[in-house]
Amino acid sequence: MPLVRVDESLITQVELDRALQRSGKPEGAAKQVLENMVDQHLLASQAQREHLDQDPMVKDALEAARRQVLAQALLERRGPVQPTEAEIAAYYDRQTVLFSARRVFGFQSISIAEPKPGLESRLKQDLQSGLGLSELVSGLERVGYKLRTAEGTAGPEQFPAYLYEDLKQVEPGQIVVAGNDQTLTVLNILSAKPRPLSLSEAKPIITRYLVELGREESAKQLVKSLRQSIRVDYLTREQALAMGSVITLPPQ
User: Fold this and answer.
1) Can you state the angle between helices 56-78 and 199-229, rounded to 10 degrees?
2) Of 99, 115, 109, 107, nearest to 198 (Cα)?
3) What are the PpiC domain coordinates in residue numbering (predicted)?
């Protein structure tokens, strides 16, 4: 059923229902979603009147959006595999720090962007020798590191996964230093209070995580299969020019 006519196009009830579903908003937000759709139609109509749909960059963006929508639709059509009860229980047992032995921590943290090799071991040595956190921050800033500091209370799920192993055993008064190639974290534990989750409480969380993990793995396997069955040729500059390519390739 049509709801609104905007220029030469119609917005139907079905389109509104789908837009509302995609937005994740409650039904009470339908009017606002509809108004947003009207605004979008108005802008799109004006863009067409100005022939922006013929602009090469706009055409490229539209085609990229089309490919993205089709790819996402294919993955969603395949559907995620729901984890079994045994898989959920096994994950619960493996991740004790998140569930059965979960604690809520009072903390101070320093996140260091793009740490240089060896920085983690050097910071551990400095802290063991009695260097305070304020001196550590000053020293890092002095040599040009970008830092982000924070403090508060959080469960383990709110920290980076590379801290999980240390959080299993850490006690108040201890400082954890861990990270990866992108970020290094210095975590000062001020308090630790038990807040375990039972298997029944954790089940919805684990299910969502395993479904998303399965979706990602399914996508990887599908792409791998398609790459094996569909020819993909990476063209040299000469081949592209011979095909009359309009793309200007950088010199090799």
Assistant:
1) 120
2) 99
3) 83-204
| Greatest alpha-carbon span in the chain | 74
Beta bridge partners of 110: 149, 186
Cα–Cα dist 182/96, whole Å = 26
pLDDT tens-place string over residues 93-135: 999 999 999 999 999 999 999 999 999 999 999 888 888 888 8
The values of phi and psi at residue 50, to 5°, are -90, 10
**Spatial separation of the C-alpha atoms in residues 248 and 252, rounded to whole Å:** 12
Distance of CA 149 to the CA centre of its chain: 21
Measure the CA–CA gap between 42 and 159, rounded to whole angstroms.
44
Contact of 112 with 160, CB cutoff 8 Å:
no
- Going from N- to C-terminal start, the domains of the chain cover 2-78, 103-194
pLDDT in tens, 127-161: 888 888 888 888 898 888 989 999 999 999 999 99
Q: pTM to 2 decimals?
A: 0.67
Residues 6+ apart with CB under 8 A from 97: 156, 164, 165, 167, 168
